[in-house]
């Protein structure tokens, strides 16, 4: 079954200015429509490391929804558990600056509750033989609870990826049961009700380490853009991983690729430090292109003792 990823599919509408971006003005530029969504990106990133993940999600009953499924199938994602229902996909509207950084965005989330019925009906089939679980931490709490129950039943690790921390923090008691949470420094600030925007990696590493120990949260990785990322767990292990020096074209999807790489490492035998390194490499490969996902890698390129198989 591989790694099981659960979450929403979005249509990303991305605007890029031709000249210097003016926040309060009209900016001439070009617009792109791309298959998106944190979980959709993560599952394709995992597939691009020639692993064979499974995706639980919802798409529209439309040609676009069918196109999403077909693309994932071409990347050898198991799409058996993707449902097609009216208005099954969300929309993410984003504008970027000339440096490729996100200048502003608005998202409209889809209704993901049909996933709950699917998990209740086929949960044993889905989770019994999977390698690990990636779950959007801001998904409906009823869904999180059921999936956590299955993870305990079959002793599977659960990794949380953040789409909207404002929603995710409302499930704080549930997130403490995840094996690892991945977020950026702004989201970490929301989670702990503090402002980390001016913290250095060293300072933030110490802060998050103390939070992990005090809050009995198993582990957390916080990405800090060009400053790299920090990681810590409840046992006191912690560290800083510098960012790769690359030319930035578009930062969209970099955090999702980071989560995919981290998950792959932690699932297949790497410790937290080495897994963060894998995530950093995949994130760097995304920001150098205009794609939302990483290019193809073989597992052994990332230090994984895994041979590619279609089994």
| Number of structural domains | 1
Helix-strand pattern: EEEHEHEEEHEHEHHEHHEEEHH
- Low-confidence blocks of residues: none
Secondary structure category: alpha/beta
What spatial order of strands do you see in the largest sheet? 5-4-1-8-9-10-11-12-13
Number of strands: 13
Q: Going by CATH, what is the homologous superfamily?
A: Ribokinase
The proportion of residues forming helix, as a percent range, comes to 25-40%
Number of helices: 10
CATH topology, by name, is UDP-N-acetylmuramoyl-L-alanine:D-glutamate ligase
The CATH architecture: 3-Layer(aba) Sandwich
Main sheet record? 9 strands, mixed
Mean residue pLDDT: 91
How many whole angstroms does the radius of gyration measure?
Answer: 18 Å
Determine the N-to-C terminus distance: 10 Å
Q: So what's the CATH class?
A: Alpha Beta
How much of the sequence lies in strands comes to: 15-25%
Domain Carbohydrate kinase PfkB: 3-290
Pfam family, one: PfkB
Protein name: Carbohydrate kinase family protein
GO molecular function: kinase activity
Write out key terms for the chains shown:
single chain; 311 residues; alpha/beta; nine-stranded mixed β-sheet; four-stranded mixed β-sheet; 10 helices; 13 strands
Written description of the protein model:
- Helix content is 35%, strand content 23%.
- The protein is α/β, with parallel strands linked by helices.
- The protein has one domain (38-87, 111-296): UDP-N-acetylmuramoyl-L-alanine:D-glutamate ligase (3-Layer(aba) Sandwich).
- The chain has a nine-stranded mixed β-sheet with strand order 5-4-1-8-9-10-11-12-13, with helices on both faces.
- The longest helix is centred in the C-terminal third of the chain and has 16 residues, at 272-287.
- It is globular.
- The N and C termini lie close together (10 Å).
- The model has no long low-confidence stretch (mean pLDDT 91).
